[in-house]
Design brief:
776 residues; alpha/beta; seven-stranded mixed β-sheet; five-stranded mixed β-barrel; 43% helix
Length: 776
C-alpha cells in the first residue's frame, strides 16, 4: 500500500527529460523561473519537484502544459556556466503529485502530495514479473549498443520490485509519453507490467534494426571486397602496362569526341554521357543504352558536308544522260545551281514530284544527287503509320532507335545529301500518332535547322538537305504538308517520248543486264511502237521495260541454244516473242454509234478514254446509272438529263420522253470506280444521241463539266487526257474554252495530229459531236 503526505515545494519544469526515484543525473537550467526555483530550494531544504513538460518546444509553460505527476529530488550540486546557465546534479527520491499551484511568479510553487511506497509482500506473481523484466532487460542490453553490459550486475542485486522498475525505466531509450506512464504507475506490480509491455515492443524493434543493419553490413562488405579486388586488378594491369577495358572504352569515346568537330551543345552532352558511363558498374543494363546513344551521336554528320558541283553545263549533261524529257524538274535544279553560284548560303529546296507510276520520279532524285555530287538517301514512306518512325523512340524504351530521318542522315554521312522520301501520299495514321504531322517540322525550311529526334534529344540541322518527295496523287497529301513543298507535276510520256526512251535508255540497259550485245539483237523502231501501242497502256515506261526484258530473255534463250546468232525484232514478228496483243490500238469506236459518246478520263496511271453508253427503253421515266459511278459523276448525269428535258423541243425530242421511256446510262469497265464532273458533256451528248436517234462521230472525244443551263466548265488533267486520245486514234477533241491555256503543255508532234475545238456551251458540243444526215 502507499502512504500520502502533503507539503509545499518549488517546481522545476523539465524539457524532454524524466527523472525517476533512485536516479542521479545532471542537466542544464537556463530559464529565469527555473533558476529562481533552484535558488528557493537551496535556501530551504534543497528539495525540489521535477515534472516534465508535455511539449518541450514551449519556453514559458503554463499549468496545463506540465504533467501532474513528478519526482521529488534533492539537489546535490550546482555549477554556474557562462551565459547565465546553471548545471544541476540531482538525485530522485520519491514520487509526488501536484495538488495546487500556489505561486506562478517568480517561480512555480506547488502544493504536492508525496506518494510513499510500502513494501509489498513478496508473492509469486511479482517474483515472476521481476524475473521476466530482468530477462527482457538483459536481451535489450544485448541488442542495444547504447547501454554498457555492466548495468546488468547492478540490476541483478535489486530485490525491491518498485525500485527495479524505476532503475530499468531510467536506462531505457523511450518516448517521454511511455516513461511518464511508468512514472504515473503507483504500485510496483502495475509498473512492472507496463515496463514489460513497453520492453517487448522495443526488443521487437531492435531485432528488426539488427537484421537491417546486418543486411546493409553484408552488402557493404561485398561492395568493399569488390572495390578492393578491382583496385588490386588495376594495380596489376598498371604493372603489366595493360588498361582496364572499361577505362579504355571511356578513353576511346573521349578521344573520338575531341577529334570530331562537334557543336558545343552536342560535345557537352556526349561528355556528360561518357562521365555517366565511367561511373557505372560494368554489368549495368543502362550501360548498353548509353553506349548505343554515344555511338549514334558520334556517327552523325554534325558539321561535315560535301562540296556541290556548281557547273550548270555538266549538271545539265548528267540530267539529260539519265532521263529523257522532264523539262520542268531539270529547269528547277539548274535554277538552284545558278542561285548557289550567286548566293553561297542557301537553304535546300523541298520539292514534291507528283506523277503517275513509271515516269522516273525516284530515279530522277538519284540523278539529281549525281549531278550535284551529293550523297543520296532514300526512305519509303508507303504504309508508315507511326509518328515514332519519323521522330524515333525515347531512350527509356528497350531497343529504342532514332527515326528514319536521323538514320538516313547517318547513312548519308554528310549534312547536305539529296534525301528522297518516296510515296509520301501512301502514309496513314492510327492510335500511335500521325507521321505526316511529324514531317511538318522536317519539311519546313523555317524549322528544320533544329530538328529534334526523340532518341538523340539534340537539335540537328536539316536546312542544307535537298528534300525530294514523290507521290502518285496530290489529293492524298495532307494540306499543311503540301503547303510546305514546291510541287512539280510530271505528266505521262507521249508515244514519241516513249520510243526515244526505249531506244536510248531502256534497250541498252536490258541488253547489258541480259548479257547481250548490239550485234546479237536488232530492235526496229516499228517493233517498239507496236509494244507501246498493243502490249502496254500506261503513262510511264515500267511495263514497256518489262516487255523489252521479255523479248531479251527469248532472244538470249535462242542464242544459247544455237538457233540464231543474230535476231531481228520487228513489228511483224513481235508476236513470236510476246504473244497476242493485249490492247486494241486505233479508233476508240469502229463506227459512228447512236447513244455512244467517247469521253476522256484522268487516272493515277495517266489518261484514258471512256465510252459512255445510253439505252432508251419504253417505261415510266426511270433514270438508271451503272458502272460504279461516284456521287459527283451521278449528279453530272442528272444535271445533263435535266438540261435535255428543258430543251427537248430544240433537239427534236418528244417533250414527254421522261414519262414514256426508261433511260439507262452505263460506263463500261464496271469494276473500276469512277468519279468527277468531267464526263458531264459526254453523258449529255450520248443522251441527246439516243433520244434523237442521231449517231455520235467515232472520231470525236470530249471532256468538260455541264451546268443546268448547258454551259461547259473547265476540268483538270488535260495533258493526260489529250495523250490518251492521241494513243486511241481520236482525231477531234472538244475542250472547254477556259482550258485553252493547258494546250501549251501538249507536245507539238501530238498537237499537229489532233484538231482541238474549244467550246463554252452544249450547243457547240452537239454541233461537232453529232453526225448530221448525209455525213459519213
Amino acid at each position: 500500500m502507499t502512504q500520502e503526505k502533503q507539503k509545499l515545494l518549488p517546481l522545476l519544469p523539465l524539457r524532454g527529460l524524466i527523472v525517476f526515484p533512485y536516479m542521479i543525473l545532471h542537466f542544464d537550467v537556463g530559464r529565469d523561473k527555473s533558476i529562481s526555483a533552484l535558488e528557493e530550494a537551496m535556501a530551504e531544504d534543497q528539495l525540489i519537484l521535477l515534472c516534465t513538460q508535455k511539449d518541450p518546444k514551449i519556453d514559458s509553460p503554463q499549468e496545463n502544459d506540465i504533467y501532474r505527476t513528478g519526482t521529488i529530488a534533492r539537489i546535490k550540486q550546482l555549477l554556474k556556466l557562462p551565459g547565465n546557465t546553471i548545471r544541476v546534479l540531482v538525485e530522485g527520491i520519491k514520487r509526488a503529485k501536484i495538488l495546487n499551484y500556489i505561486e506562478t511568479e517568480p517561480f512555480f510553487k506547488v502544493e504536492i502530495m508525496e506518494i510513499e511506497e510500502e513494501e509489498d509482500e513478496s508473492n509469486t506473481e511479482i517474483e515472476a514479473l521481476m524475473r521476466s523484466v530482468k530477462d527482457q532487460f538483459e536481451d535489450y542490453v544485448k541488442l542495444s549498443k547504447k547501454l554498457s553490459p555492466e548495468i546488468l550486475t547492478t540490476i541483478n542485486v535489486i530485490d525491491e520490485p518498485g525500485r527495479l522498475a524505476d532503475i530499468i525505466a531510467s536506462h531505457l531509450t523511450l518516448k517521454i509519453q511511455d516513461k511518464q506512464k511508468i512514472l504515473e504507475a503507483v504500485t510496483a506490480k502495475e509498473r512492472l507490467k507496463k515496463l514489460y509491455a513497453i520492453m517487448s515492443r522495443e526488443i521487437e524493434i531492435l531485432e528488426i534494426e539488427r537484421k537491417i543493419s546486418m543486411r546493409v553490413r553484408k552488402q557493404m562488405e561485398k561492395t568493399q571486397k569488390e572495390y578492393y579486388l578491382r583496385e588490386q586488378l588495376k594495380a596489376i594491369q598498371k604493372e603489366l602496362g595493360e588498361k582496364d577495358e572499361r577505362i579504355a572504352e571511356v578513353d576511346e569515346y573521349r578521344e573520338k569526341i575531341e577529334k570530331l568537330n562537334l557543336p558545343e551543345a552536342v560535345k557537352e552532352k556526349a561528355l556528360k554521357e561518357v562521365d555517366r558511363l565511367s561511373k557505372m558498374p560494368p554489368a549495368a543494363a543502362e550501360g548498353v543504352v548509353i553506349r548505343n546513344y554515344l555511338d549514334w551521336i558520334l556517327s552523325l554528320p554534325w558539321t561535315y558536308e560535301t562540296q556541290d558541283r556548281l557547273d550548270i553545263n555538266v549538271a545539265e549533261q548528267i540530267l539529260d544522260e539519265d532521263h529523257y524529257g522532264l523539262k520542268k524538274v531539270k529547269e528547277r535544279i539548274i535554277e538552284y545551281l545558278a542561285i548557289r553560284q550567286l548566293a553561297k548560303k542557301m537553304k535546300g529546296p523541298i520539292l514534291c514530284l507528283v506523277g503517275p507510276p513509271g515516269v522516273g520520279k525516284t530515279s530522277l532524285a538519284r540523278s539529281i544527287a549525281r549531278a550535284l555530287e551529293r550523297k543520296f538517301v532514300r526512305i519509303s514512306l508507303g504504309g508508315v503509320r507511326d509518328e515514332a518512325e519519323i521522330r524515333g523512340h525515347r531512350r527509356t524504351y528497350v531497343g529504342a532507335l532514332p527515326g528514319r530521318i536521323i538514320q538516313g542522315m547517318k547513312q548519308a554521312g554528310s549534312k547536305n545529301p539529296v534525301f528522297l522520301m518516296d510515296e509520301i501520299d501512301k502514309m496513314s495514321s492510327d492510335f500511335r500518332g500521325d507521321p505526316s504531322s511529324a514531317l511538318l517540322e522536317v519539311l519546313d525550311p523555317e524549322q528544320n535547322n533544329a530538328f529534334s529526334d526523340h532518341f538523340i534529344e539534340l537539335p540537328f540541322d536539316l536546312s542544307k538537305v535537298m528534300f525530294i518527295t514523290t507521290a502518285n496523287a496530290q489529293y492524298n497529301i495532307p494540306r499543311p504538308l503540301l503547303d510546305r513543298m514546291e510541287t512539280i507535276y510530271i505528266s505521262g510520256y507521249t508515244e514519241e517520248e516513249k520510243v526515244r526512251i526505249a531506244i536510248d535508255y531502256l534497250l541498252p540497259k536490258q541488253l547489258k543486264e541480259h548479257g547481250l550485245k548490239r550485234e546479237n539483237i536488232k530492235f526496229s523502231e516499228s517493233a517498239i511502237r507496236k509494244i507501246i501501242r498493243e502490249y502496254t497502256r500506261e503513262a510511264g515506261v515500267r511495263n514497256l521495260e518489262r516487255q523489252i526484258a521479255a523479248v531479251c530473255r527469248k532472244c538470249a534463250t535462242k542464242i544459247v541454244k544455237g538457233e540464231n546468232k543474230r535476231i531481228s525484232v520487228t513489228a511483224k514478228n513481235i508476236e513470236m516473242f510476246l504473244g497476242i496483243p493485249r490492247f486494241r490500238y486505233g479508233m476508240a469506236e469502229k463506227n459512228d454509234e447512236i447513244g455512244v459518246a467517247t469521253g476522256l478520263a484522268w487516272t493515277e496511271s495517266g489518261g484514258d478514254i471512256l465510252a459512255i453508253e445510253v439505252s432508251v427503253m419504253k417505261g415510266k421515266g426511270k433514270l438508271t446509272l451503272t458502272g460504279k459511278l461516284g456521287d459527283v459523276m451521278q449528279e453530272s448525269a442528272r444535271a445533263g438529263f435535266s438540261y435535255i428535258r428543258s430543251r427537248a423541243s430544240e433537239f427534236d425530242i418528244e417533250e414527254d420522253f421522261y414519262e414514256k421511256y426508261d433511260i439507262h446510262i452505263h460506263v463500261p469497265e464496271g469494276a473500276i470506280p469512277k468519279d468527277g464532273p468531267s464526263a458531264g458533256i459526254t453523258m449529255a451528248t450520248a443522251l441527246v444521241s439516243a433520244l434523237s436517234n442521231i449517231p455520235v462521230s467515232k472520231d470525236v472525244a470530249m471532256t468538260g463539266e455541264i451546268t443546268l443551263r448547258g454551259r461547259v466548265l473547265p476540268v483538270g488533267g488535260i495533258k493526260e487526257k489529250v495523250l490518251a486520245a492521241h494513243r486511241a486514234g481520236i482525231k477531234k477533241i472538244l475542250l472547254p474554252v477556259e482550258n485553252k491555256k493547258d494546250l501549251e503543255e501538249i507536245p507539238q508532234n501530238v498537237k499537229k495530229r489532233l484538231e482541238f475545238i474549244m467550246v463554252d456551251h452544249m450547243d457547240q458540243v452537239l454541233k461537232h459531236a453529232l453526225v448530221k444526215k448525209g455525213e459519213t
